[in-house]
Fold this protein.
Amino acid sequence: MARYDAAAAGEAPPATFTDVLAHLASGVAIVSCWDGEAPRGLLVSSITGLSVEPPRFLFCVRKEAGCHDALLRRPALSVSLLAAGDKEEALRFASGSRAAERFAPERWRLAPGAAPAFRGGIARADCFVDAVIDTGSHSVFIVEAEHFAFTPAAPLVAWNRGLAGLGTPEVAGG
């Protein structure tokens, strides 16, 4: 199979592959778990639905991320798909320098025996890790949802190295 040659096609090639990926709009989620006695979490923009039966998501985590090893050790985790109004929470989890601001009890359910769960968002799911695939610099986590809830709202989307809301939600069938 021949590779696409942007220069031969008269197009300017992107500076890096990360520039290409930055222009792929995607929903964002906070993935959280316990690491011993401490809650841990990170923002992911690589989340996608994998199957309905069984109910599964997949997402990618950079191996250097502070939460990566905790996710490998703890099979139970929470996935919170974020709404347009959750931008500030997303920014807390996107930056390691804001880690001390995460998991405020008024925004998070921190119950013993359950993964930390964000009180906001469009959807929340209690999950367990079903499989982890090593892909070089990242791990692909395949998780199965055991319990989930949905609240209609406009989504928060990652695009071009920023976050933006997508307006008002459409009512299915309406």
